[in-house]
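Response to reviewer comment R2.3. The reviewers asked that we include at least one raw input/output pair. We reproduce the pair for DNA-binding MarR family transcriptional regulator here without editing.
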Amino acid sequence: MTTDKTSPAPHYWYSAETDRERAIEVLEHLRAYGAADSAMQRRSEKAMRMNENDISALRYLLRASERGQTVGPRELADYLGIQSSSITVLLDRLEKAGHIQRSPSPFDRRALIIVPTMPTDEVQRAILGDVREELVEIASDLSPEDAETVVEFIDRLRDAVDQLDTPAADTASKKQQAGIRSSH
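Raw output as returned:
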């Protein structure tokens, strides 16, 4: 299969439609990459003997840990979209495998926080999947500025996706849309 890599002639002024088309093209390419990444992730899950929720939970816990944030069982269950009985089973499984530990919250003696305890090489696999040298090579071709732009863009997309379909995001979105409609 060949891909037509020609692009329209650059414009001095871009129309809103051109901006939208460019944005959709970027998102379509990200979606295609996401499908390939999902397939790679399934291979990693099989190799690590973990399921998708286990990996997603560890990613969430590791990102929170990197930001200096604590996560409790309810927050993790909400993020994963699972019930409290299921989060207990998941946490039991991750704790038994040595991937997490439950600790008392420093803020509330009655609450627990979940702390990732994975060795560094497993953390890398859990976050990135099978990091193949071919992928590292492609990413290392980016200039430091381009790499920073890509990372910031993907982080913003990830944060937006994490907020989609949540009750708080839906309420904020409805308020924002109502404000937009009333201002016209």
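The radius of gyration is 20 Å. The mean pLDDT is 79. Further pairs are available on request from the corresponding author.
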